[in-house]
Amino acid sequence: MEELGDGIFPEEVVIQIMARLPVKSLFRSKAVCKLWYMLSSDKYFIQLYNEISRKSHMILVEILDSSDSKSSLICVDNLRGVSEFSLDFLNDRVKVRASCNGLLCCSSITDKGVLYVCNPVTRKFRLLPRTRERPVTRFYPDGEATLVGLASDSTFQKFNVVLAGCHRTFGHRPDGRFICLVFDSELNKWRKFISYQDDHFTHMNKNQVVFVNNALHWLTARSSYILVLDFSCDFWRKKPLPNDLVYGMGNRIYLLDFNGFLSIIQISEAWMKIWVLRDYWIDDWRMVDKVSLRCIRGMVPGIFPISQTSEYVFLATHKQVLVYHRRSQVWKEMYTVKHSSTFPLWFSAYAYRSTMFSCN
Amino acid sequence: MAKTPEPKRTISLKPCDGDVIEVSPMIAKQMQTIQSFIEDDSFIATTTIIPLPNVTAFQLSKIIDYLNYHSNSKAVADNVKESTKKFDEEFLKELEHDKLKELLHAANYLNVKEVLDFLCQAVADLIQDKSVKFVRKFFGVVNDYSVEEEEDIRRTHAWAFEGVEED
Asked: With respect to CATH, is domain B11-127 assigned 3.30.710.10?
């Protein structure tokens, strides 16, 4: 075999290999030679990389110790198991608020109203400018906006952060005004718009926000529809749920991503049913799986689906992370928390995947 | 080589170091390079032998094995994930580094996407925890950085080098 300075493989093969490296190894490979540095920095390469990493989903769990209010992060990966995860590079005490396409939106605990968007694998972050809007801290009695959403568009390498909630001055009932602030990464600015609606959210459906079709999607507390924020027109819309979905009477429903499609998971006493929105524009929901919960019967009341692909579903309980392999129909315990005094894991678990997404 | 007439149409491939290997059109179709041969108007499946001067018999049969296994396993039940994984592991276990590299070349020459994807992942898995030096040697790449330039990269991305042993 010929050994040229550029190596034994043609460029397109090197690119395909690099695109399959974990992010840390990829950054190390920049030191191999100038060509590799150039290849790995190319815009099309980054797109290819993000496309391939789409297949490997993980979940990120913040473990909050309720006794000393300390928290640590772990990353649960179907292939590599559990690893520690750190946001120390932010040099601040933060709480993860949203996760999308490899970026995280975190709010500072020490300084209310300070938000970061970061890519934990490349350790790059962006401190968002403060919103002029004082009421952001008054949206909700605990001082946080009701909804925090992160939308990162990997094709155009830009992101939006959304803070939204019902207007209420402290101690008063909401007056129906729904205030929404949207941060645009390209303009580095917040914009604000107000609409009139009265939606309520529980902790779980605040966390579960899905970005598809250039819009963010949340499930409302009564689970009668999906609330959609469309970025192309700054407009709140409603999307119907599957017709054959039964909510209430011991059924709980959750909103998740399914390989880039919207998906609904319903958990009842005996079954976990999964719907996927095949055609976004004509609201064509299809049930794609129906999983018996018999072998985890005792845990059913406390399981919450966090993330899924066509191969597996990640679920969190109070103290455990479970993974269900859809083809082999096997349940596996991935992680069990050791401290006794933690908040439920599902309280702060997010779907996550590592990408090269740049937040700058 | 005398050919017995058979009703089943197969494609004849001649590796550089061995006898003709017959493959089903289904398998041949996955090799983009062969596919362009077949699509040529002058191609007659029963008589034409396609020469592959860049591919050895060993490499060709490995690639065919892989395609055969995976196209069969797709057709049968869903519960094959574990055995597929086992097959893939065994497949790689038999390959030393040099053989792996050569096979990747062959798969690239034949342009078989499924095998290429698989082998690229295998190489990525192999080098992911290795030092920069190892990677250079593995890929036959000459370091064209000056000492300062390389140090600069290592400093800028210091986090990526944490916990990795240099050799």
From this structure: yes
